[in-house]
Protein 1
Amino acid sequence: MARKKQEPAKRKDNPDVVGLHAEVLEQPITETLQTNYMPYAMSVIVSRAIPEIDGFKPSHRKLLYTMYKMGLLTGGRTKSANIVGRTMSLNPHGDAAIYDTMVRLSKGYEALLTPFVDSKGNFGKTYSRDTAYAASRYTEAKLSPICHELFRDIDRDTVDFVDNYDGTQREPTLLPTSFPNVLVSANTGIAVGMASNICGFNLTEVCQTTIEYINNPDHNIMSTLLAPDFPTGGEIIYDADELSSIYETGRGSFKIRARWRYLAKDNLIEIYEIPYTTTAEAIIDKVSELISSGKIREISNMRDETDLNGLKLAIDIKRGTDPEKLMAKLFKQTPLLDSFACNFNILIAGMPRVLGIREILDEWIAWRTDCVRRRVFCEKEKQKEKLHLLYGLEKILLDIDKAIEIIRNTEAEADVVPNLMIGFGIDEAQAEFVAEIKLRNINREYILKRTDEVEELEKQIADLEDILSKRRRVNKIITDELSDVIKKYGAERRTKIVYNDEIPEFDESEQIDDYPVTLFLSREGYFKKITPLSLRMGGEQKYKENDSLRVSFDATNRSELLIFTDRYQVYKTRASDFDDTKASALGSYLPAVLGMDDGENAVFMVDPKNYTGQIAFFFENGKALKTDLAGYATKQNRKKLTGAYSDKSPLKAIIPLDGDIDVAVYSTDGRAVIFNTKLLAAKASRASQGVAVMALKKKSTVENAAPAAATTIKNYSRYKVRSIPAAGALLRPEDRDEIQLEIGDLADEQV
């Protein structure tokens, strides 16, 4: 909606009171979005959240350039508050945002492999959620030595400059980095409708890869750019296909895990490097949660022993615990092993683009080539200007006395330059240069020395022009500078590379105590796991009022369970996730334990064993579905699967099948039909509606289904059919079960 203009209006109840009356005009939402929202969205994308080819966001660039202009590249440190205040002349977003930017770029915070701010004082730690940095008035900073590679050519017309937000200063649009900082410095940004998440790579590997790629466009990038590298160290689990995809598309994820050592003397595990994506507090919180829930019993205590020497998390383990197996369990259940999702979204000429490594290098090389050409051209113009002045000086050399006489005989100072121009046939710039020579330098020796430079300058200019005309020579300059960066600032990898075949395989189920149990599921969703001893010693099974047994079967503590619900979903869990109980206990309420949706209830429980069997679903409309249990197996550790079965008709029964059996289906009008499940063709889709098995009469529906061997039917042949669908036969009195069958009323032998 858009308002027109406000006009004063008198209130009816009191004419002396003047109020405001606003006329409201309608405006299409598309027009509102285009005129109001789109400029904001583009501003966030282009001017705030997405890094550019130099590897910096505008906030980074403004801070570093301010520090450069303050002389902090070669001078001593100054208070951070001073830097923040000066930066506000370029960055109007407030001192807190500027100081946050400085903290992230600092050596003390340890968020970058190549920090650009040499900090002193408490700048916090990237691996600690709770370690806050000190206020800017207490800390000091200057630019790190590597910033020489950011600013060495900035005053030689290598990049464009623009006015700042109030037009009082000029600032660079990019920094002329002599190495591909966009790949070296990790960068994360969330814009409007898009984001960027660039992992860092080792400086030496990036520079060496760029050199090889410039010299050979067909260079195999993965042979020199081995894998991402992070300041927090850790170990990357190397997957060649995964990394190849990231290098090619700019999207994908890889796994990174903590590094640890076992100290046998103290019987503890010491974690000294963690994934870049997490914090020490997040790890401790998760481990504490697992200990409290009883999912990890091998740990007696965990504490943070981080000190001035760096990160250290100590885990006291119980006697007899295998540290390798314990860490394998922790890697699966805690942030000690995490994933880094890559999204190489970079602004190229003001447009966001997701690029692979090869494309990023292409763009950086093209941009750096332009920087070098501009630098060479600027140098050539300076040399040509100097040469031009020396040409004028050469003409003066022919007759110094004449020049002195012209100057001496000129009455007005303003006429000196014009008279020299006329007397020697030189232009204004040359005449001005001659006129500015000191009296002590008006001698043949000085002038001969200057004019001797002419030949050298002519050679230099010719060489610079040759550079501009030959791409090969420009490439040589870029590669030489990259080699120089490696020599000065190169460092070893911090993140170790671990290959999949180096990681020992641990079966999680083998770490769980295995013993026989009997499992019970009640109609209201209460679950019990009872050992044989407790079952023999215990009394009658206890249930809530109006609750009763739905299904029960023997299993083991390692058994995986499928819990089907009335919302067409199935939850996956393990018997070991539940404590042993007694018959007199109510048990665990599954909707709460498994985090089911509001109003969702458990209707059946299945032990899929090795997912080789089948399962049959029977619906109210007379249809049945037979599908493979393999359809419920997942490679990922997913706890819930939607679309567990068809939602076209209410579910009346579920029967697990180890092989084909005879099944009895009952209808509400007192009929029954028995058929063999081999008549049901197995369907690949879990959500299939199945096939009709019972021809129902008007207003009748399927009431239940059960294995025929588990029913009270005596006249077996009366109800058995050889094809489906079938109407079935009316149940005789002797074939009726006195207990009304409902979904899941199965004895042990039925399962």
Note: The first helix runs from residue 29 to 49.
Protein 2
Amino acid sequence: MMRNGHFRKHMGLRTRLTLIFGLGALMLSLLLAGLTYFTARHYIISQRETSDIHQSFANASLVLTGLRSSGAKVPAVIDSLGTAPGARSVVLSDHQWYATSISIGEDSLPANFKRLVLSGQPADQLFMISGTPEFAVGIPMPSIGARYFEIFSLEDLDGILRVLLLVLAIAALVTTIAGAATGRWAAGRVLRSLVATSQAAVDIAGGNLFTKLETTGDSDLDPLFESFNQMADSLAKRIERETRFTLDVSHELRSPLTTLATTAEILQMHAHDLDRQSRQALDLLVAEISRFQAMVQELLEISTIDSGSAELSLETVDASMLVRHIAHAFARDSVPVHISPALDGLEVMVDKRRLERVFANLVDNANQHAGGLTGITAEEKYPFVRISVIDRGPGVPPDQRQKVFERFYRGRTAGRRGNATGTGLGLALALEHIKLHQGRISIESTVDGENRFVVDIPQQLAQNNTPASSPPAYSDDPESPPEGSDQSSGNGMTRQGNGTSPQARKRSTNGSRRRIGRISRTSTLLATTTLVLASCTITAQSHPTTLPRKSIPFGLMDKSPFNPPLNTKNAPVEVPVTIYLVAATGRLWPVTRDVAFPAPLDSLLNALASGPTKSEASFGLSTAIPQQSGSLTARTVGSTVEVSLSSTFGTLSGPAQIQATAQIVFTVTALSGITGVSFKMKGHSIDVPNAIGALLPGPVNRSDYAALAPLLPVTSPAPSRKTVSTSTTAGPAARSATAGGPPTS
């Protein structure tokens, strides 16, 4: 039945709505799970890092107190520390490394982190050792010339985050299933009413005008159902009035028409007594009365069918004998009749009177409007018996092949009264009779310009099938089954009602495949996202984080009054550093300075501001930084250095300002781990010019001064350095000049 087709369509819509709800719930649950996870992850890691930093401060204070004691040994001091489970201590004292674990030592620390702490800056960094997350804290202790490192294992925290991620993933899955179930329930609740409304509309369109929708008690849907029922009632009453009017008029016309016909017959009996003009008028009157009688009879039949009171008087007949009877009754002996041998012995159930009327109308249409009948053919087209009525043409245009079955449609003869010998109801009545037989009728045009009216009569009628549920009787393609039917190859029956043609089923299949493809791609993306989230438990930091000196408690960063050296047995260790001066060509030139370990940034910049030595000046080296600018101060923020400039520095302009800025940038970024420099003046960030004079907000790097790239020495003797140790707390750093000088071109 047609109901099955609509049910399947709406079931497809229900499935799509369920998928939409499910995917929406999945997206929302993943978003909430992601926000929850990353918020919790950030909070948990921050809390652990804060706790570990405080623990490191306490242990560093114990190490500081222990090493200040006379005769204290580093191994004994660090072994006495009450560290938390998974924590290990590493100490650098007198250029000797000590550790509480053989698995963690100097080589385990990240290079940038270790270098930063050795330079005198407290720092921390999260890194990985063999896939296990570790958190390291480094604290300089300048009063005893030592560096304290503590490494905390975060393996337990990593496990907690993985469990949290698993719980959130399960919650997202449950939410998705619940969303899909809710969507399916909501879609089913709405679509049940939609299916009922759609089926009722189909029934009304098929002629069942007494279809009603039952109210469900839903305040939103009941007004729609009531309006629909009122519309159906109004439509049924209107059609019933029109049908009754047509039927009554036809009945009322039969009596006067009978009288007129009888009178005309009497007049014809005395036609020889009339003159020629009177006889012509009488002949015209008789023809019109005959045409009028035929029209009234056809209107009565159509009205009976429209009112739903038409019934078939079925009888079983031999298909080949039926065709021969039709040909003998309505075709001339000269018209060829071709009957397929497959019809011999094939029995069909038909209403002979109605079929005779159908073919009488088709033959009459061929004789009056198509140049005459040229042939009749009959063949088996399972599950139909196909009978074709062929005329001389001309062919019916495709845009008029459906209109010719409309009531009172006469095509090109419309409006030309003299040529209109028919009533315009013959083909429309034939269509209605074919509908009652659950068959179909179509028109073909051959290459020779002939018309072929094709009538398909079912070999076996569907049981309890009313005209309202019959398939459409008109078809543009006689080879295709009627819309709404599905030909079964197993039981020999025509199964009605999947509501889709092969082309529609193909489009539906392709659409389903595309939807499945989109769903698969979306699921793959979501699965990939889940895997990425699963790998984002604890990740390593690429650079260490500096700790503010003011936040270091217990006086760990204080210096003792006598300021003992790092190594009392050996001379101070000198660290070679590179600074950049300005050559005679205007470009930068690297020279080397040795400063006592550790080498603070302030001392390095002040050595740059102090300018070249005499030997360097003899080679044309100079500095664009004014010596009266005072001490330059700097601090490290990750991989960036913030340099504070004095107001005197701001008096520079033009090339001098560019050269002075480039000197600082190249000198500072020569240190490992430093990639950029930002500048401040009086506590506020300032813009500095690049190599072409454009102001940049910073941080700036070497690429901004590519035009001032350092010159490489071409011919210069091997450098020799003279080292002069200086204090790291005041004054310019000790320096030694390269013996060779830069070329002047």
Note: Residues 2-68 form the longest helix (67 residues).
Protein 3
Amino acid sequence: MERLLAKIRSPQDLVDLSLPELEQVAAEMRAVLCNLVSSRTAHFASNLGVVELCLALHTTFDFSRDRLIWDTGHQIYPHKLITGRYDEFGTMRTKGGLMGYPNPHESIYDLFMTGHAGCSVSTALGLKCGDDLLPGEEDRHSIAVIGDGALPSGIVFEALNNAGGLKKKLLVILNDNKMSICPRVGGLAEYLDKVRVHPLYNGLKSEVLRFLENLPVLGDPVEKLLGQAKDSIKAGLHHGGMLFEQLGIRYLGPIDGHNLGHLKRFLRIVKDVPGPVLLHVITEKGHGFKPAAEDPVYFHTPAPFECEDDGVVSVKQSSSRAYTNVASEAIAHQLASNPKVTVMTAAMCQGNNLEKVRDGFPDRFFDTGICESHAVAFAAGMAKAGMRPIVDIYSTFLQRSFDQIFQEVALQNLPVTFLLDRAGLTGPDGPTHHGMFDLGYMRLFPNMTVMAPGDDLDLPAMLDYALAQPGPVSLRYPKAKAERVERNLAPIETGRAEIIEWGADGMLIACGTQLTACVQAAAALRGEGLDVGVINARFIKPLDRQTILRAVRDCAFVVMVEEGALMTGFGSAVLEAANDVRLDTRHVRRLGIPDHFIEHGERGELLADLGLDRDGIARTCRELANQLGIVRGHGALATAGSARHTG
């Protein structure tokens, strides 16, 4: 039982606790985190690593007034536990429960929904500048907590450059745990490693910390004291922190991020220093739970597990094969068979299941870190040189590289293949991670071919097709169990859909892996006397106008199904094509994601809510049949006006 934690209703309840009591709260918070992941997947190792930092921040600042932004907000769980959400914590990542990321609708202590990395410094700086322009708000502190994995994002350095120039009072806390989701990569990671392992880091427990602990409460101005500490650290590190100093950012650290007393001391020192400060904090991902500390990659979002009395972790493994597995196997096959194929990801090697690809083809695997814009432009350069790059990035994260998709890839008509993992609804991760928009933003660009596999048979065949094309190709698939529609697989041909079965009454046109649900719905409807067929669209661009417009023209009703935003999506493309040839589309319905953000929940729950599961699709067909007066069992000829051409 959480003896102390259960009494914390707001951060104000922490203020009068002694240091040993705060350390007890930290232990209780870790116990709650362990209990949570015994029942569901949740972000784990990253949250274990920031418990002391969270407590130190909330006992030094008043974030009911001050500003706090957690970058890549999956490490928000400890913050939620002490900001009035302890009683609801068991609902984390469930439909209607707490979100696994910051959520302003839940608490005044959450200012932004932050699920993408790198924007904390920009938003914290904007908050500070905005507060300074409002009468009576100038005394608010503004703090960004950013991980070393997110630090290389280009926008971070844009923000640091701006902060150094504006000289606004801003505290940036660099939470350095040597990790992104996977081990961090790149030159900046090596730079931080040099700072981290310097003898001064160990010496902080002695020379520097003794110096700081002996500072009088009253005496020299804080500005002077910080300058002395800064000079000492710079002298010891030679070039440590100079990268930030040259940008006009005062640098202090590195310090032990699991020593609450030292954290609080350093935060008090920097609290009233004018101008931007970067405090370098060293933490351990998975701290306090040995299996997570030893394998923070797996324990980032582990399958539910139980920790037995002897400390052994029993993991509840899933035996199902996901579309991500199908894609990674297809990538490995392409790398093995074609020496010109390369693959790159943006800090998501594990998420994209590319560990075997990385290990098997180290010279042709590239992890750019959380730098999606760079990854796409980098791929463009590689394609221009004559290689066949595959960019394997989550749909939601690829949005960050929109301009590079346009400028460096589509405009140049370069053969870059985009594999968009997590397209559609990602379930418990919620609105920051749902891949809702890629069909719309990819089909905008000339030269771009846009595809969606109907099942696990389509995906490898489509990748093979994509890598043979002269221009860019986008290929999307969901975070879901791989499914298969048994059939004689039609070959992948440019702009050609696959007719699974033609229906006399109506047609379901599946864009992507809703194909299985459409086939199941059609089977149920045929059992009720409605002859409904199914088309596997395969191509969003170029659209198979011949097949799809035939269905619009000749069938009593047509239902288009897509796991993406309706606005600018597949259904919109069909309606545009129908309009071009003046077809009546009053009997056509689009099923997809409406024009609002979708909250978190299990993927199956969300699909059902949106009418995108088998039952919802069948229900829409029944409603259309009733509206159109279709006599079940007699086919489309039983309705008036089955010919839809008006031109």
Note: Residues 19-36 form the longest helix (18 residues).
